[in-house]
Amino acid sequence: MNIVGIDPGKTGGIVVLDPSGKCLEAIPMPMAGDDIDTNTVLMLLHSQPEGTRAVVERVGAMPGNGGVSMFRFGFGTGKLHGIIEAAGIPLDVVSPVTWQKAGPGKTGGDKGITAAWAARSFPGAPIVQPRCRKPHEGICDALGIAWWGWMQYRAGK
Fold first, then answer.
1. What Cα–Cα distance (Å) separates residue 30 from each residue in 39, 40, 70?
2. Dihedral angle at the C-alpha atoms of 57, 59, 63, 65, nearest 10 degrees?
3. CA angle, 151 as apex, 111 and 24 as ends, to 5°?
4. Most buried by CB count within 10 Å: which residue of 37, 72, 127, 153?
5. Which is it for strands 35-36 and 53-57: parallel, antiparallel or unpaired?
C-alpha cells in the first residue's frame, strides 16, 4: 500500500511512499493563485493504487497569525480532507509531535533538523527543488508525516 503524506498550507508539500518506504513522488503543495490546485491533487490521488492511505498533519491556530490567514489555512486544510475523501482514500490525521517522534525526533521548531533527517532517510528524494538552494520545508515535513503513516500501517495498526 502506498502512503500519501501531506503537509497542508501554501508552503506545504505532498509525498508518496511505496510499500517498501521508498519515496516515489515529492512535490510542493500545488497552488492555483492563492488556492490549492484541486485538480492536480485529485489527479495525484487518483493515480495511486488500490489500498493507498493518506495522512495529513493536524493543524491548529498558531500564535501571532491573524484571523484571516488562519481562516484561509483552515479552509485549505479542510479542502484537502474533502479532496482525499472524494478520491476514496482513507485519511488519518497526525499531530506534529507524533510524526516527529517517528522520524526526526524533537525538533523544537528547527526545520533544519527535519531537513537533515529527510536527506538521510530518503536519499534521492527531491527535497531541494530546482532553482533552489535550501530544502523545501513542506516536502521535508510531508516526508515525516508519510513516514509516520508508513510505520503505522507496516506494523498493522
1. 9, 7, 19
2. 100
3. 70
4. 127
5. unpaired
Entry pTM: 0.91
pLDDT truncated to tens, each residue of the chain (157 aa)? 999 999 998 999 999 999 999 999 999 999 999 899 999 999 999 999 999 999 999 986 566 666 666 667 677 888 999 999 999 999 999 999 999 998 888 888 788 999 999 999 999 999 999 999 999 999 999 999 999 999 998 865 5
Distance CA 117, CA 114 (A): 5
Query: Cα–Cα distance between 34 and 85 in angstroms, integer?
Result: 22
Contact 147, 102 (CB under 8 A): yes
User: CA 101, CA 23: separation in Å to the nearest integer?
Assistant: 19
Residue 5, C-alpha cell as written in the block: 503524506
